[in-house]
Amino acid sequence: MNNLQKNILLTPFNILYKISPELDLKLLFRIKQGYSLNLNNPKTYNEKLQWIKLHDHNPLMIKCCDKYTVRQYVESQGCGDVLNDLLWQGFDPNQIPFEKLPEKYVIKVTHGSTFNIIQDGTKSITKNEIINKCNKWLKAKFLPCYGEWFYGIEKPRVIVENFIESKDDKQLRDYKVFCFNGKPKIIRVDTDRFTGHKMDFFDTNWNRVDGAGMGYPVSGRDFKRPKCLSDLLIYSEKLSEKFLHARVDFYIVEEKIYFGEITFTNGAGFDRFSTYEFDLMMGKWLDLNQAEKI
């Protein structure tokens, strides 16, 4: 379902959000999670993400949810060495210097998680097709009713980055480090994103977390502990320290770490977990009382 279809389907909720954001999120939460949202005493992870959307207005979130302006933050935190090479950036896709790009590259529109064109050297896509896609994506708006107020404030642009190639899989493994009050607690490894999405969970000592799940099956593969795990956790801590909660995403290729993105409300707080107990366990890691100290 594309954004236009979602907007049509969720029109009543978009209207309700303008009247009462709290009531809107309570209704959506009940529909999507199957239990009532308690904002006075939130306990689960997904409940606390709803609280953050309503009460945490850290201005840094606006910069850090944009794929271009987040680069400035990454550098300011002393983590510029994990940034991927930026080949071009701008607001007009007609200005992309296609003739100067390498054979392999990635084009992204900076305000969406699915607005990507991955050119691995095998795909046949014309310059006009790319421009048209980017123009369409640049006009896309986030659903107001989901309450993720920080998206779309920064003017979206197009960026072109170096193509990062996996050495042991057909697709890159995505290492998503969930940080709570500036401390990494759990790592989700996403694989086969485009051919049957899988998610595996590990603690910070690289022990598999049994029973953990966020709506997709576990691959069960024997992922070896990355040699650069300690560095990964250090980068995660540096990049999450200014936020109540942040999911900091990385890629690892031949033990080199590449920054992906920062997400503040994983799945908008609506992802169905494998068990309520897992939702509750992650919720215990997040201390909302730390809000005033950030």
Strand proportion: 15-25%
Which class in CATH terms? Alpha Beta
Write down the secondary-structure element order.
HHHHHHEEEHEEEEHEEH
Could you say how many structural domains there are in total? 1
Principal-axes shape call: globular
The description of the largest β-sheet is: 5 strands, antiparallel
CATH architecture: 2-Layer Sandwich
Structural class of the secondary structure composition?
A: alpha+beta
Which radius of gyration do the C-alpha atoms yield? 19 Å
- The proportion of residues forming helix, as a percent range, comes to 25-40%
**Termini gap:** 37 Å
Unreliable stretches: none
Task: Please state the average pLDDT score.
Answer: 94
How are the strands of the largest sheet arranged?
7-6-5-8-9
Could you describe the 3D structure shown?
The chain is an alpha+beta fold and 294 residues long. It has one domain (3-288): D-amino Acid Aminotransferase, Chain A, domain 1, CATH 3.30.470. The protein is built from 9 helices and 9 strands. The longest helix is centred in the first third of the chain and has 13 residues, at 21-33. It is globular, with a radius of gyration of 19 Å.
Q: Secondary structure elements and their pairing?
A:
Blueprint: H1 3-9, H2 11-19, H3 21-33, H4 45-55, H5 60-64, H6 70-76, E1 86-90, E2 105-109, E3 116-119, H7 127-138, E4 158-162, E5 174-180, E6 183-191, E7 198-203, H8 229-240, E8 245-253, E9 256-263, H9 276-284
Antiparallel strand pairs: 1-4, 2-3, 2-4, 5-6, 5-8, 6-7, 8-9
